[in-house]
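REVIEWER CHECKLIST
Item 1: Sequence provided? yes
Item 2: Single chain? yes
Item 3: Sequence as submitted:
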Amino acid sequence: MITTTECLDLKLVHCPVPQVDLSPSLLARLLLERFLEEHQGSISSKQVLNSMLREPSLIPDVQLARHVEQCTINDCCYGPLVDCIKHAIGQEHEEILREKLRERNLSFVDENQLRAKGYDKTPDIILEVPIAVEGHIVHWIESKASFGDEHSHRTYLNEQFWSYWNRFGPGLVIYWYGFIAELDCQRDRGILLKDCFPSDIVTLGHSPDQC
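Item 4: Structure as written out by the authors:
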């Protein structure tokens, strides 16, 4: 069995990704798992592993720590650095959504307020007074700072959107970077897709608001 030290001696970390068929961050994770198993005699917890990947200085082997850091920096798709960037972009678009709602004087409760009330799985926004968008009632809004492809949308439907629908009723999902048009096929069942904040909002007793 090849050891972590031998992996480093062979400079696997510096191999082009196609040569090892792994993303840099995944390669770093596998090497770190192997290193910890060799030195501790057991598999480390996911929490310990993730902490070291986020903060390589916690890794007792200086050479491995340096390689893990380089893998994280050089990976443009996965890993803790990319996760931080995605989180920041997501937060930015959630704030854009809140600002749009305030501009239209729409009362709402956001995810943080809902969690403070004891809700575990919630959409980003619950509207205190429902609205209508393109003839569809909307009770909640979910912000996604990503492109809605078939795989991700199916995952979101199963893990998030249908749960929101069951608990709060019909809602709206905004994919700020667009989505595959054919995925917007659940409108009659209560899940509407848009790629921007809607301009044709109807509130109770009001005419449509135009941007």
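Item 5: Key structural point noted by reviewer: The chain is about 45% helix and 15% strand.
Item 6: Recommendation: ____
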